[in-house]
Amino acid sequence: MYKSSFIYILIKNWTPLNMKQGLIITFLLYNISLALGQGKADILVDINDQIEIIDSYTEFETFFLDPEEFLDKMADHGAELNGYYEHERLKKIVRKVGTRTADVETTFYFWNDRLIHVNYKQRPYVEAKNESGQRILDYSNAYTKYESNHYFNEDKEIEKKIKGQPLSEVATEKDFVKYANKMKSLLDNKFYNRDIYEALQGKWLFIQNTEDYLMFEGTIRFNFYNGKFANRLKTKIDDNILICFFPMDDRNYRYEIKEVTENVLTLIDLSSKEEFVYAKVE
Which end of the chain is more exposed for a tag (fewer CB within 10 A), N or C? Predict the structure, then answer.
């Protein structure tokens, strides 16, 4: 009803000046009609088709983040996050975080780099008895008590389906779009700069003071001064610029990666223009 009324108003108020203009406006009206004609049901059909296609891929290139790379505080019973790439584009993220009483499992689906679907589960651990007869939680055995499926179109949630009741002791996630885009950014950074990150891994001694050194593990940089741990920073690489920052902090430090080989790392502080040279030791 809305679509036909909208087009009727356009036609009623249209007086073409020439044939060329008439063809252009007819083409525009046709495309407006198609756009307005795709309702929520059609979009959901497309999303489900896209999910099926993604799940049918058999040759994903899998990339992962260590817990320290995507968590601000460590999980009670472990955490993992894997990204699945097909033709150099992220298609799916699977995240699992072990809380005190349950595993929280979340799967994010992407199409053309936009979030289209999230499957979220809260899976409490099964109770068992130990050798003394005490009731304990079996962290290797869990069941799905709460599940929600969320469908997105242009970063807006258009449909939500829920099964069960959420656990009171587990904070139920809500802002999936913001979180998914953050995790995608972390994975893409590591994936597209994988050769540089691979070269950075390990321990690097500062040649002017060998009591100072760096260690890279994944995308985390650990700083040691006078042989003692000083701090850890998350990193990302943007066009050969190493950006180091503290979690939950707006401060960052930017370095040009002048050289990185099997034995030598040279960084230039973009603020002070000072050059730092490190030797690889392990």
Answer: N
Say whether 45 sits in a helix, a strand or coil.
helix
What is the rounded average pLDDT of the residues 210-216? 95
Q: 30 exposed, middle or buried (CB, 10 Å; 0-12, 13-18, 19+)?
A: exposed
Residue 33 scores a pLDDT above 60: no
pLDDT at residue number 25: 58
* Tens digits of residue pLDDT in 68-120: 999 988 899 999 999 999 999 999 999 999 999 999 999 999 999 999 999 99
Chain centre distance of CA 225: 32
Beta strands in the chain (DSSP E): 61-65, 79-86, 89-98, 102-111, 114-129, 135-142, 146-153, 156-164, 202-206, 213-217, 220-225, 228-238, 241-245, 252-260, 264-269, 275-280
Which burial class, exposed, middle or buried, applies to 150 when counting CB atoms under 10 A from its CB (0-12, 13-18, 19+)? buried
In the chain, the amino acid numbered 49 is D
Strand 114-129 and strand 89-98: pairing?
unpaired
- Tell me the average pLDDT across 157-177: 93
Rounded to the nearest 5°, which phi and psi values hold at 132?
-90, 0
Q: Could you give the CA distance from residue 147 to residue 259 in angstroms, rounded to a whole number?
A: 48
